[in-house]
């Protein structure tokens, strides 16, 4: 074998090993998170939303740990989505993925962040909703397609929670500027 062929073979083996390790890590994450129940289904008769914005569903992470992606039930899959605020809850209607519904009683807070698990944007460019599922707390990120929709969506979710504005919600450890 000449040097070029050897280099190609070694590179292909290294890529295969790395892909295998990534698949093993993903499988182990799914196994660790198998106890997480799926989010409840949205009501059949939803009514008209108070506000809706198109954008990108970014990810759901464990509450307060913006790098711990939740992989089960498709919660860790990015997708184009519409975030719709109803009187009974918040719905992320994701394209090509299962919709995620968060009942009003499960909502804990909402804030603007710079990023989370694989998505980093300008300061306050990401809307992060904190919510409970069973006994556990989760953070879900959503990036509006149009900047003008972000403050309106933030206000609509705050109104749903019962908070007058985002300054009354606690910030997470990653809300500080990333250097």
Automatic annotation (TrEMBL):
<feature type="domain" description="PH">
    <location>
        <begin position="40"/>
        <end position="157"/>
    </location>
</feature>
<dbReference type="InterPro" id="IPR057446">
    <property type="entry name" value="PH_bac"/>
</dbReference>
<keyword id="KW-1133">Transmembrane helix</keyword>
<keyword id="KW-0472">Membrane</keyword>
<dbReference type="Pfam" id="PF25362">
    <property type="entry name" value="bPH_11"/>
</dbReference>
<keyword id="KW-0812">Transmembrane</keyword>
<protein>
    <recommendedName>
        <fullName>PH domain-containing protein</fullName>
    </recommendedName>
</protein>
<feature type="transmembrane region" description="Helical">
    <location>
        <begin position="6"/>
        <end position="26"/>
    </location>
</feature>
